[in-house]
Specification:
The chain is mainly α. It is about 70% helix and about 0% strand. α1 packs across α2, α1 (about 5-20) packs across α8 (about 120-154) and α5 (about 65-75) runs parallel beside α8 (about 120-154). It is globular. Keywords: Membrane, Transmembrane, Transmembrane helix.
Length: about 150
């Protein structure tokens, strides 16, 4: 795993793949996987394919936020029932949610894009900013927590 993350490269990777045809959730997961050099199957990207447009077009949670939450879960989520690790994962995901809401005023895709035509360049530009900002914030949270864990182990 790589923890020497170039945040500008991370954002550029998210931007590039977003413009090549991945949607918001897929782009966040792709960029985190690539830059952290983690052994994460393409299945994780496929599992996030239903999130764009607010859960398949339902207008609910923004896919970028959902993808970021999935990445936090990969690093800090539980893998066995009853593991209390989920409390840390909840707190970190809430931190991402709060950042997202403060930055973009709503976690809901339908609210974020309501004034735009789906194919409008202005909507794509706004979503690009959301994807890159969310990817960077997700990486910052992961890096901070990994560093904290490393210091605890020393």
């Amino acid at each position: 795993m790589n923890t020497n993350i170039d945040m500008e490269q991370l954002a550029q990777d998210a931007d590039n793949i977003f413009h090549q045809g991945f949607a918001c959730s897929e782009s966040v997961i792709y960029a985190i996987r690539k830059n952290f050099e983690i052994d994460l199957s393409d299945d994780a990207i496929a599992m996030s394919s239903g999130f764009p447009w607010g859960l398949g077009g339902g207008g609910c949670i923004c896919g970028a936020l959902a993808g970021g939450a999935m990445c936090i879960g990969y690093f800090f989520g539980r893998r066995t029932p009853g593991d209390p690790r989920n409390q840390r994962c909840f707190a970190l995901t809430k931190e991402l949610h709060d950042f997202f809401t403060e930055s973009f005023h709503s976690p809901c895709c339908g609210v974020l894009i309501k004034d735009y035509d789906r194919d409008a360049p202005e909507r794509k530009a706004m979503c690009t900013d959301i994807v890159t900002s969310t990817t960077k914030k997700t990486a910052e949270i992961i890096l901070r927590e990994l560093k904290h864990d490393e210091q605890q182990e020393s």
